[in-house]
Design goal:
Blueprint: H1 9-16, H2 20-27, H3 35-48, H4 54-61, E1 66-71, H5 80-92, E2 98-103, H6 111-120, E3 126-129, H7 136-144, E4 148-151, E5 162-165, H8 167-180, E6 185-189, H9 196-212, E7 215-218, H10 228-236, E8 247-250, H11 253-264, E9 274-279, H12 283-287, E10 292-295, H13 298-313, E11 322-325, E12 329-331, H14 335-338
Helix pairs in contact: 1-2, 1-3, 5-13, 6-7, 8-9, 10-11
């Protein structure tokens, strides 16, 4: 092969003594090709400098060679974007798919980026988060047949692919753990009520409270999306409230840090208030290493979202594309050594 000649599938096939079709399917990670053959094909492709002709693929198949992630700001989940992007990249690294990131700004209607993707067909599949009970984005994607996986569930009658965290179990177990520490009045700083995972947490909170016989409520006028200064001010004022809670559940690290700062600023002798939190990064390990936390593996979430989207593009049945990540309780300091999901 001359220096100026671009390597092709045929070049790889001849180097390995394989058929062009076998090489093509190996590079596409087809299930009927052995792992050893895939490894040999990829190694030879890398050594020869083979690069897939995505423009040609699109002309032949109608595929774009790209998938899109609609990034919704999650300021309340520390490190959400970077961890999810790392997981998505890992999930796509053995493919030729290019990952496009589309910002979903809070002041815009969340369906707008999805409408644009459906209209222009610039991606072979879509991943998005922060789902609603009757999510219009899911309905639109199902109607137009564009493969997708949502980070979160819906209550739509039509089944669809999703990957979610067990937020109902998180709230349920958080109540049980605080009650075991002697707490009798427990409150939850929850996600905004428009999101379905708010209602999942509310269900878990109510169920566990009834079972162990404690009072529980969701904080009024505050959510995970509230300014941390407002959350800190609220927590600081709990020392002046006669009916203050003795247990607080934070479903995000930013709120946990704000609550802890507010509680620490109360006058000496204020009633002890115990705290548990969800954890998504290592920040609590640096600030509150002994805090009891429930770890949500966001990197693993991204990895599975990418894998499931690829399976959806290939036509995998929807019942195989629905998964809920389990809870894992430990201390903030030990979370990343005890709760990392094994692949």
């Amino acid at each position: 092969m001359g220096k100026s000649q671009r390597p092709t599938l045929k070049t790889i096939a001849e180097a390995l003594g394989l058929g062009v079709t076998t090489v093509s399917r190996a590079l596409s990670d087809a299930d009927d090709i052995s792992q050893s053959t895939k490894a040999k094909v990829r190694e030879t492709a890398d050594r020869l400098g083979y690069r897939r002709d995505l423009a040609g693929v699109r002309l032949r198949t109608g595929k774009t060679g790209s998938v899109s992630f609609v990034l919704h700001p999650h300021d309340e989940l520390v490190g959400y974007g970077s961890s999810l992007m790392l997981g998505l990249s890992r999930g796509l690294e053995k493919t030729d798919y290019q990952l496009n990131v589309i910002p979903d700004f809070l002041h815009e209607d969340p369906i707008k980026p999805i409408e644009k993707l459906v209209r222009n067909r610039t991606s072979d599949g879509v991943i998005f988060s922060q789902t609603y009970a009757m999510d219009k984005r899911v309905r639109l994607l199902l109607e137009h047949g564009l493969p997708f996986v949502s980070h979160g569930r819906t209550e739509l009658a039509t089944e669809h692919p999703f990957y979610d965290f067990d937020n109902q179990r998180f709230a349920y177990e958080a109540v049980k753990r605080l009650a075991a520490k002697g707490c009798r009045k427990i409150i939850l700083i929850a996600p905004h009520s428009e999101y379905l995972y708010h209602h999942h947490m509310k269900l878990g909170l109510t169920q566990a409270s009834h079972e162990v016989g404690v009072e529980s409520a969701i904080v009024d006028d505050l959510s995970l999306a509230s300014d941390t200064a407002d959350i800190m001010h609220w927590a600081k004022g709990l020392g002046e409230v006669s009916a203050a809670p003795d247990g607080i559940i934070c479903s995000g690290e930013a709120s946990a840090l704000a609550v802890n700062a507010g509680l620490s600023a109360r006058p000496l002798g204020a009633t002890d208030i115990k705290l548990v939190s969800k954890q998504t990064s290592k920040i609590l390990a640096l600030t509150k290493p002994d805090l009891e936390t429930c770890f949500e593996d966001i990197e693993q979430t991204g990895f599975r979202l990418a894998q499931m989207l690829l399976q959806n593009i290939e036509g995998s049945p929807v019942e195989n594309l629905q998964e809920i990540q389990a809870t894992c309780w430990t201390t903030a300091e030990r979370a990343f050594t005890e709760c990392i999901t094994e692949e």
